[in-house]
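user: can you give me the structure for this one chain? tokens are fine.
assistant: on it. calling the predictor now.
[tool input]
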Amino acid sequence: MSRRVDLRLYVVLDEATTPPAAFADLAEAAVAGGATTIQLRDKRSGARSLIALAQAVRTRLHGRNVPVIVNDRADLALAAGADGVHLGQDDLPAAFARAILGQDAIIGLSVTSEAEIGTVDPALVDHVGLGPIFPTDTKPDAAPALGPERFAAIRRLLALPVVAIGGIDHANAAQAIRAGADGVAVVSAVARAADPIAAARALMVEIERAGRESGRHR
């Protein structure tokens, strides 16, 4: 079963670029600029703090029809009432996350190379986060950048929707869409912008233009 998610502009709130206390403000700004999915990534805070953060973001976005996804922790996503979880290759297997969260939850899975394609079970996973497509300094332990051509080759082997991640900004977002991505995930491009609303809008302009040109968006 696949739960349809609008992946066009997937904004990740990361404690490396934004103080967790400001997550709700940034989420609201990103959505005002056009963000279609929000993910929370905070590897430093404790479980109770993460639950509170997710609940605060959900409350701020109430009625906006934008899903809030928690990084790594299916248990905390459930406790916070989040819409789903995004899993890395070393996190809880998707089968267990699905058992915890139920059939209506959104589950994303990171893929960084051809070797990991076999870990993607379309019966359990709703979309794939593929990357890094470009070099990134947001995540120090990121795998080597794939580049648009290799990204495109891997994307063609995946039957699920794919969001590109890694080093994406308004200057190269269109490249990711043309390489086959259904959307782009960004951190710094919005979080470090002087005007996050304007930054999100600029990204959506590039995403929509490239999507129309490639036939992916209408």
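assistant: here you go. The first helix runs from residue 23 to 32. Residues 15 and 43 are 8 Å apart (CA to CA).
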